[in-house]
């Protein structure tokens, strides 16, 4: 039960990751080629875009899923402030692009 409890909060992002992977595989199989290699969960090298990381032979894509049960609104400072989400996303991009 401990592992199940630890994963309860990740259900929505797991559904999104699964849909992305199935779409990738379906598209690549239809084209008769596949360069998709892996999915990594909670990739520490990806910084804040680490909810799931998709890996192809030629690129790496970090994903960050955000949601809230209440109606919490983001303002410009939340996005672009000194510690805003865009800064975190840019840092994740920088780290992944170095790989």
Any idea how many domains? 1
Helix content: 40-55%
The share of residues in extended strands comes to 15-25%
* Gap between N and C termini: 36 Å
Enumerate how many helices there are, as a single number. Answer: 4
DSSP strand count: 3
Coarse structural class: alpha+beta
Compute the average pLDDT: 81
Strands in their spatial order, largest beta sheet = 1-2-3
The stretches of 5 or more residues where confidence is low (pLDDT under 50) are none
Q: State Rg.
A: 16 Å
SSE series: HHEEEHH
Largest sheet: 3 strands, antiparallel
**Which term fits the overall shape?**
globular
How is this structure best described in words?
The protein is an alpha+beta fold and 99 residues long. It has 4 helices and 3 strands. The protein has a 3-stranded antiparallel sheet with strand order 1-2-3. The N and C termini lie far apart (36 Å). The model has no long low-confidence stretch (mean pLDDT 81).
Helices and strands in order:
Blueprint: H1 2-7, H2 11-30, E1 36-41, E2 52-56, E3 60-63, H3 76-80, H4 85-97
Antiparallel strand pairs: 1-2, 2-3
Give a short overview.
By secondary structure, the protein is of the alpha+beta class. It has helices at 2-7, 11-30, 76-80, 85-97, and strands spanning 36-41, 52-56, 60-63. A hairpin with a 3-residue loop joins strand 2 (52-56) and strand 3.
Key terms for this structure?
alpha+beta, globular, about 100 residues, three-stranded antiparallel sheet
């Amino acid at each position: 039960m401990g592992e199940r409890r630890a994963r309860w909060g990740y259900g929505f992002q797991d559904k999104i990751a699964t849909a992305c992977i199935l779409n990738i595989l379906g598209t690549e199989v239809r084209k008769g080629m596949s360069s998709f290699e892996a999915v990594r969960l909670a990739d520490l090298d990806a910084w804040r875009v680490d909810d799931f990381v998709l890996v192809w032979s030629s690129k790496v894509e970090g994903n960050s899923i955000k949601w809230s049960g209440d109606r919490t609104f983001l303002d410009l400072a939340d996005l672009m402030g000194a510690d805003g989400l865009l800064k975190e996303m840019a840092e994740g991009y920088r780290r992944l692009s170095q790989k």
